[in-house]
Write a structure and sequence with these properties.
Layout (H helix, E strand, L loop, with lengths): L2 H8 L5 E8 L11 E8 L2 H13 L4 E3 L6 E3 L4 E8 L6 E3 L4 E5 L4 H10 L2 E2 L11 H7 L12 E8 L3 E6 L5 E2 L2 E2 L6 E8 L1 E2 L2 H18 L19 H7 L6 E2 L2 E3 L7 E3 L5 H19 L8 E3 L4
Parallel strand pairs: 2-5, 3-5, 4-18
Antiparallel strand pairs: 1-2, 6-7, 7-13, 8-14, 9-10, 9-13, 11-12, 15-16, 16-17
Helix pairs in contact: 1-2
Length: 304
């Protein structure tokens, strides 16, 4: 592959901002990660299509990144191209009734606030969750028992090499932190079907959920959110806590004292510190509880 050739081809491209060796610690909520070979912000669909065409021709690996709230980037960085969705993908429009259409690059908080402002219910489970609409759709973000996918009427995605596709909400399988979207499919836009409600009641519900999140999670700390998926109806946090692992630390990475399924960068943590904590937690829960925890956090730039 040729990162240099890709960089030269994309430099000066319309509606695309191209950076070399941008450190991913600046682009993730963990504040961890080495440089990306290329970091490209695309502000229109033609720019995205151009970037993907060049990367394919040069055989450069790529990944879509939202606000980096569910990512652990390697200390060595990512030897490929990180793509973020900019201006054209950050729009939000109101339709008739309870319909809202949002671009994948829009902050999830803006979508939630628009629903509240419009007295529409159905997105309360997303209050306080960082990241973008596209990231939330891809991970089916929400609470333990409610997910954003339940409010999705339809999606527009790009499958590189195949083109645009529209999914009805019922066409994709969803659940706790997963969807059936293909690994190369890029969410571009989502339309939500929400229910009319009383603004004050919706606001109270959002405030109550936000208060509970702040009390039960390490708010304001450098984390990636939940590290492990909940195994079935069991709670990963409760399993980890039952093994006495709250506060377990390697270097600058520590199992949160507030919520055991969060690993916090308490200062100067490396990706290898976080991975070491993850391995220890996984092995202890498997040995003591017989549960094989699976990561929820996405790993970027690791060999395996």
């Amino acid at each position: 592959m040729s990162l240099f050739n890709a960089y030269m081809s994309l430099s000066g491209a319309t509606d695309a901002e191209v950076l070399r060796n941008e450190h991913l610690s600046h682009r993730t909520t963990y504040r961890i990660g080495g440089p990306a070979g290329l970091f490209v912000t695309v502000n229109s669909y033609p720019a995205l299509a151009k970037v993907l065409s060049v990367l394919t021709a040069e055989r450069v690996a790529w990944v879509i990144l939202g606000k980096g709230s569910n990512i652990l980037a390697s200390d060595r960085g990512y030897d490929g191209c990180v793509i973020t969705l900019g201006r054209e993908f950050s729009r939000i429009t109101r339709g008739e009734g309870g319909v809202i259409t949002a671009g994948a690059g829009l902050l999830l908080a803006r979508l939630v606030n628009e629903a509240l402002k419009s007295s529409l219910a159905g997105l309360e489970c997303c209050v306080g969750i960082p990241g973008t609409v596209g990231g939330a759709i891809s991970m089916d973000a929400g609470s333990r028992h409610e997910w954003i996918g339940r409010a999705v009427r339809d999606l527009v995605v790009l499958d590189p090499g195949k083109g645009l596709r529209r999914y009805e909400g019922s066409e994709s399988e969803r659940g706790d932190r997963h969807t059936s979207l293909g690994p190369s499919e890029i969410v571009l836009e989502a339309t939500f079907e929400l229910e009319s409600g009383v603004k004050e009641a919706i606001g109270r519900e959002m405030d109550d959920r936000l208060r509970r999140r702040r009390q039960s999670q390490p708010a304001g700390k450098a984390t990636c959110g939940s590290v492990f998926r909940n195994p079935g109806d069991r709670s990963s946090g409760e399993l980890i806590e039952s093994c006495g692992l709250k506060g377990f630390r390697v270097g600058g990475a520590q199992v949160s004292e507030v919520h055991s399924n969060f690993i916090v960068n308490v200062g100067g943590a490396s990706a290898s510190d976080v991975v070491a904590v993850m391995r220890h937690v996984h092995d202890e829960v498997l040995a003591r509880q017989g549960v094989d925890l699976q990561p929820e956090v996405k790993l970027l730039g690791f060999a395996s």
